[in-house]
Backbone:
């Protein structure tokens, strides 16, 4: 009787083990003799991928893998420059600026070079007998160099609005020299008008000396010469 009970108990244990092994809720690895999970059963659901952002338009590549210099996308103009293109653009810009400078120089009005003195008039101004004239400058003598310098002073005065003449003078020791007389006549050898005119000639003398380094004029101590014979 005890053997029968033992056989029944063993049978129940075996049956329970079979039921456990056949229970689909138990996850028994295949290497332990468990049954494989049927396809589609208890498979985890895949999460839906998040909506991807709208793909940005990419510029088409130029042949050879080089990116084009100018691209357009979404209503925008994109400029892409490499080192070589930048150098070429810089050289072209310099050439354009230099060309514009040369063009401006060629179109600019040409100014005649300013000369310190304009030539004296062909016909020298006339001196009136009985009038007084300011002695602007006495020269050293009657040499050709003295005459040339006297004429240069007369031309300088003419260029600044005051006519002048070159004449010979006899010094107290009877030595003759060239002298420059301003051609503006005065009734007397002294007066307010004489002083104003002498100051003007003295200012011109400072300019002349700065240009030529010689002859400051003698209007600081003005001497008005009476002309007894006109020309």
Residues:
């Amino acid at each position: 009787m005890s053997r029968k009970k033992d056989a029944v108990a063993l049978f129940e244990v075996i049956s329970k083990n079979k039921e456990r092994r056949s229970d689909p809720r138990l996850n028994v690895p295949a290497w332990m003799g468990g049954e494989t999970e049927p396809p589609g059963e208890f498979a985890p659901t895949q999460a839906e991928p998040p909506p991807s952002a709208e793909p940005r338009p990419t510029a088409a590549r130029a042949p050879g893998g080089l990116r084009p210099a100018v691209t357009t996308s979404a209503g925008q103009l994109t400029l892409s420059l490499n080192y070589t293109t930048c150098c070429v653009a810089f050289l072209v810009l310099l050439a354009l600026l230099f060309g514009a400078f040369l063009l401006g120089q060629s179109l600019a009005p040409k100014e005649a070079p300013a000369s310190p003195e304009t030539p004296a008039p062909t016909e020298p101004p006339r001196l009136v007998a009985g009038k007084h004239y300011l002695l602007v400058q006495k020269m050293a003598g009657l040499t050709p160099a003295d005459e040339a310098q006297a004429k240069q002073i007369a031309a300088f005065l003419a260029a600044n609005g005051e006519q002048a003449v070159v004449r010979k003078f006899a010094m107290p020791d009877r030595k003759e020299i060239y002298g420059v007389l301003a051609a503006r006549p005065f009734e007397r050898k002294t007066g307010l008008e004489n002083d104003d005119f002498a100051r003007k000639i003295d200012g011109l003398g400072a300019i002349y000396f700065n240009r030529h380094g010689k002859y400051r004029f003698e209007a600081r101590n003005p001497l008005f010469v009476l002309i007894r014979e006109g020309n």
Notes: The first helix runs from residue 2 to 22. The first strand starts at residue 70 and ends at 73.
